[in-house]
Amino acid sequence: MEVDDTPDMLDISVPRYLPMSQETLKTFSAMVSAREDNLGRIDSILRSIKQDIDKYVEFIIGENMFENIGYTRDFMIVNLQSLERILISKYELENWKAIAFEIRNNLNQQIPEDPATLSNLQQYHDANDETLNEFIRRRVDEMKNSPEKDKNIREYVNKNDLYQLLKNMAFVIEKPTDPLPEEQDDDDVAMAGGVISLKDPMSLHTFKEPVKSKKCDHVFEKSVIEEYLRNEIKTCPVAGCEGRLAKFDLRSDDLMLLRVKVFEAKQQADDFEIETI
Ligand SMILES: [Zn+2]
């Protein structure tokens, strides 16, 4: 037996973590898991909103329900507003969670590496001079009062795919041939005289089943581009575009389909007006 391993008689060991810290960690864990439950709930609400919207869009497109475009626009706007509120809650919860992890790291760092003994008890004591509640309050206040807060929330909401889709649909219902605000300077968007083309660039027929290339954002009629690509990888047929495409780079473009449907419905309504004058 080595002498060095013999415990110092004066060194009265206490548990590795003081009861105070253990309690703190327990409280912390309970708080985090409650927030995680809420985040899970928010995600399931988001999924069900997405399903409702998909069903609704499928219905109005399938049934050509465009006689009352005002109603469709209101549906989009109401959903957009609820979605925004939900995303803001999600943003706040995620921030809280980030703070919670910061707290956990902080606690782990503050607790000295060595087991607590009478000789380093003061160090333990000093490490806990800011209580958990004080720390959380301070960090949450910092977050709430951050001058960047509104900008960060805006960015967070805007980068959500579902929010983008709904916002774009609400826009397209009003202005079916206008480029989206963020598309106005995009060279890949097929436009003529500031108006979005609703025609397939290869067949020049109005889109029936538009698909978008995820490589270059060009939109094509599904059957036409599939016939062109077959099972090969080819250069995008749009003049000047060097994108290399294969069938699996194509995604159905619901927004373009909505543009076509709304445009046609508006034209029919205009024709009807002219006839009745
Ligand atoms: Zn292209």
From TrEMBL:
Entry keyword Ligase: yes
Keyword Ligase among record annotations: yes
Keywords, in A-Z order: Ligase
Name this polypeptide is given: E3 SUMO-protein ligase Mms21p
Organism of provenance: [Candida] jaroonii
